[in-house]
Write the C-alpha cells for this entry.
Amino acid sequence: MTSPQTPDNARRKFIAAAGAGVAGLGFTAIAPGLHLMAVGEANAAPTPRKAGEPANPAVRWGLLIDANKCAPGCTKCIDACHTENGVSANLPDPRQNSQWIRKIELVDRRPGKTRGHVTQLPMMCQHCAEPPCVDVCPTGASMKRADGIVLVDRHTCIGCRYCMMACPYKARSFVHAPLNDQNPEVPRGKGCVESCTLCVHRIDKGQQPACVESCPEGAMTFGDLNDADSAIAKRIASVPTTQVRADLRLNPGVRYEGL
Amino acid sequence: MNKREAIFSAFPLCLCVSVVRFVPFALALLAVSPAPTFAGDGTRTDKPVIEIAKPGKCIAPAEEMRRNHMDMLKHQRDRTLRLGIRGEPVTLNGCIECHASQKTGSVLGEGNFCQSCHAYAAVKLDCFECHQPKAGFKATGVKP
C-alpha cells in the first residue's frame, strides 16, 4: 500500500544537476515567503526540471494541511487556485461551477467538551498512490504522473464521469459549458473532467502550488514525501497526521494535521 | 498568372470564339474562392494567406512544418502531459507565441495563422476549446 519513503541519493544528485541547468533556463526559484516560515521549517520550492527531463519517479509530491491553522471563513486558497487555473465562477448555472478546492467545516456533534467545535478542512484531489479514478477510467485519461500527481489527460477524456463517481473525496468536476477565459498555461474545456493538478505547470517551473503560496496562515506545506529531509516529510515523521478515509487504503498524497 | 489567365490558357481554342462565354465562368470562380487571394507565383491553384507575424525561423523547415506539424503536436502533448517533459521545441503555446497575429494577438480568426490555412484545407481543430489561442494576454472571449 505504501510507496517507498526512503531518501534516495541518486535523486539528490539529480536535483543538484537539475539546479545547474536552472540558470540557463531563466527560472528563478522563489524564496519562501515569510508566512511560510511559520510552518516551522522553510517551505522549500521544488527544483525545476531540466528541459527534456521527464517527471522523476523517485519524487512523490504531497501536501500537508494543518487544519488548526486554517482560519474559519478564509477563502484565500480557493481564490488563488481559481485565479491561477482560470476556474471562473460565471457559468450560467452556478451549481455547475468547477471546484478544484473547497472548504468543508466539520462540526463535532458528540457530547462532551469538544461539542460544537468546528474543524476547517480544505479538500481537493488527494493525489492518491492507488487512485480509484485511474482504475475506473475507460480511456486511460485519468492518470498518475511518475512523481505522484494525479491528472486528467483531457486529450483522451471522453467526459464519461466514472472517475467522479469513483472518487471518495468528490474532488473532480465536470465542465458543462463552453469556456473562453482560460489561462494559457492551464487549458480547460467543455466536456471533460478536471480537478486539482497540484499546479503541475508551476511545480515544473520550480514554483509551489498557488494555494500553498497564498495561505496567510502558512497552514499548507508542499514538498516531496519521499525525501526524508524535506520539511513535509520531517513534519509527518514528527507529528500525528491523518489521511482522510485512511480505511480505503488509497495512500493519499495530501495529509492533514489537527483533524 | 492569375486564375483567369490560367483558365484561358487551358482553353486556348475557345479564346477566339467565346471569350464572352467564359467571362462569367471565370467570375464565378473568383466569387467562390476564399477571401485569400491568388498567390501570383505561377501555380494554378490558390494558396492560403500565410502571414508570418514574427519573422525568423520556425522550429523546423517550412516544408516539414506544413506536412508534419499535426503529428509533432499530437506526439508532444503526450510527452508533456503524461511524462511531464517540458522545454522541448514543440509546444502549442510556443506556436502561439510566434504565430499569433500582431493585430489580434490570436492564431485564430480570419486571416490569422492557424485558421487561414485550416479554413483553406478544410481542417477543423478542437484544440482551442481548451487551449488559449492568444499570445501573452488574457482572452476576452474571442472564438473562431
Notes: Residues 10-32+57-257 of chain A form a domain with the Alpha-Beta Plaits fold (CATH 3.30.70.20). Residues 1-42 of chain A have pLDDT under 50 and may be disordered.
